[in-house]
Amino acid sequence: MNLLFSALIGALFGCGVFLLLKPDLFRVVVGLVLISNAANLTLMASGRTRGEAPILPVADGRPVADPLVQAMTLTALVIGFAVTALLLSLAYGVYRSRHSVDLDELSREEAREARELEAHEAEHDEEPQHVAPEHHEVEA
Amino acid sequence: MTIVALPLMLLWPAGVLFAVLDGRRRGVGLAAVAVLAGVFAVLALLLARVAASGPQELVVGGWPVDVGIRLRVDALGAVFAVLTCGVLGAALLQAALAGIANRALPALTLFLALGVTGVFITGDVFSFYVFFELAMISAYALTGLAGGGGRFGPALIFAVVNLVGSFLFLIAVGALYRATGTLEMGAVARAAAELEPTTAVLIAITFFVAFGIKLGLFPFHFWLPAVYLNVSPPVAAMFAGGLANIGAYGLLRFGGAILRPELALAAEALIALGAASIAYGALQAIARRDTREVLAYSAIGHAGYALVALGVGGRAGIAAALVFSIANALNKALLFLAAELRGPLTAAAFLVGTLSVAGVPPSAGFFGKAALFDASVGAGSTTAVVLLFLGGALSFVYLFQIYQHDRWRPREEREREMPRDAAGAGQRTVALSLAVVVLALGLWPEPLLAVGDQAAQDLAGPERRP
Q1: Are residues A89 and A130 in the same domain?
Q2: Taking CB atoms and an 8 Å cutoff, what residues of chain A touch B397?
């Protein structure tokens, strides 16, 4: 049972990391959801006793499941929901402003904008030439 | 004893109330600052009480001891809470005076203060996670708001990277509970001392990675510059002077108190990572010209110093890490708040921050570095001493570089970038008063050093010195 549980958690975490590394925003979010569920399952699995549901009245002499980990998992689940909602809203914000959720495309676009901005600044600003030689002296 | 819970009881309803108010109105922003000032006063009182009569405890909800969740304030938590509330209040005040562009900013700042204060005063490992996540969610939202105009990218990277850190933290909490059978920090520390080394080391590494991500230490730093560049200066000050304290506090609390033998075991690795952080942060900062980017890399570098102090270890090392973290948070807040204001007085304030980061007396930064130096010499760690010299010299270079670039240029060139009257007298006063605090702590450092020593004593106990 322990082995099955850890294998499941490991598989969930692994899938989460795999999705996290995909160049697609929504896959990244789903990957995080998987990782959060792996964490929740780890919490559940870290209970110190197993047995009946921990609801009063408890039958004498019967083992009771650890209620503390269940309380913790419940709290962590709620936090996970809030975080997922926030992430999705951020991802939607990106989609609305850029019309794309492809991370490669987004970073290409941002790099292009940064270049344009720099070119724009360089027209006005001749500062780098004055300051640059000093940097090298100090670093050496 | 209700004074222990009072900061949370003030901040929680205030956060909810301000969430429905329009934060763009000047009055609303200033009222939120007033709430933070009130909380600051309560926390200062709490710190005075902790200094006079030791740690204060409260079991919430009237539960019996060992059943209910425990709030526990010792010198370490109290001083971080006071510092953070002060910095958040100052940053919000400056934002309110400059005009807040987004209605949610005051409410989010209050929730951030609630989360961070909760982290510092809880005595329970799991509620530490809950408060920690509350602070982080507010921070993600603050970054997202700042984006506006379609720049949600940095907020998303920030959230994704830090969430992975949070889930690792959660897994570590589960493992710690499984191994020790309790969540109360004092009991966890006692039980953790008996653990098998393999178990404890795995748990310690997971905690370290989680806090390393929050603090922006070298191998986990990649999210940090993009975030600091994207948010407005007051929010950057909140992050550098408030939110980053969670990482420093977490390392001190979990490394210095709960998993102490593992900390001693990892001393060399910590010093090596700290050294990498210092060198990487400083060299990257030298290569940048944008003030905020320089400060962001400088934050990565300075996270390294606290880590080196922890690696040096012992009471002196922990006290040094604390004193340095406090001075560093104040410096960074001051620099971010003063960086984009013009005028001779704010230039002076910025200069004070610069000198403090470089560690020139009389400034708070001098005593932070002096404490580190003292701890390294005491522990006979040549590496740490060399690093401190090198790091100090490099921070001189990059900070004066931006000082020169920002302030020593022909007037018309500077004014094109930032018109002279863009900053009101109020904003300048905020930056100046932070500079005065930095100077005052440099001229009269006894309270700071005494608190550092007491915190180290609470954490490490008087007996051992590895």
Answers
A1: no
A2: 138-139
